[in-house]
Design goal:
Length: about 100
């Protein structure tokens, strides 16, 4: 609810700006590594987990884009759509948390 409210509040202040796309756990982690370390850490973490992190980043970016479009058009989400979006965000947040736990023990 708070996240959707933040999107709606943002529309009143600056509807022309786009929202920042969040980085995946892997993107955040790999950005902190030297070029020579990325492949080694990727192998240690495992390709499957890195790909899952990147997929979640893509899903989250799509959700942010959708909400950004809604805000830019000045629309207010009806209760049913809002509930579905909140549920999708909770599921996505839960999946992101699970990836974080596995990536960063």
């Amino acid at each position: 609810t708070e996240l959707l409210d933040a999107f709606n509040d943002r529309s009143s202040s600056s509807s022309s700006s786009r929202f920042a796309r969040p980085l995946s756990v892997w993107a955040s982690l790999s950005s902190q590594l030297g070029a020579a370390e990325v492949d080694e850490v990727r192998a240690m973490v495992g390709e499957e987990l890195v790909e899952e992190s990147e997929m979640l980043e893509s899903e989250l970016a799509a959700l942010v884009d959708i909400l950004g479009d809604v805000v830019e058009r000045g629309e207010v989400l009806d209760r049913e759509v809002r509930n579905r979006m909140e549920f999708a965000m909770m599921v996505l947040a839960s999946r992101c948390f699970c990836v974080c736990v596995r990536l960063l023990p």
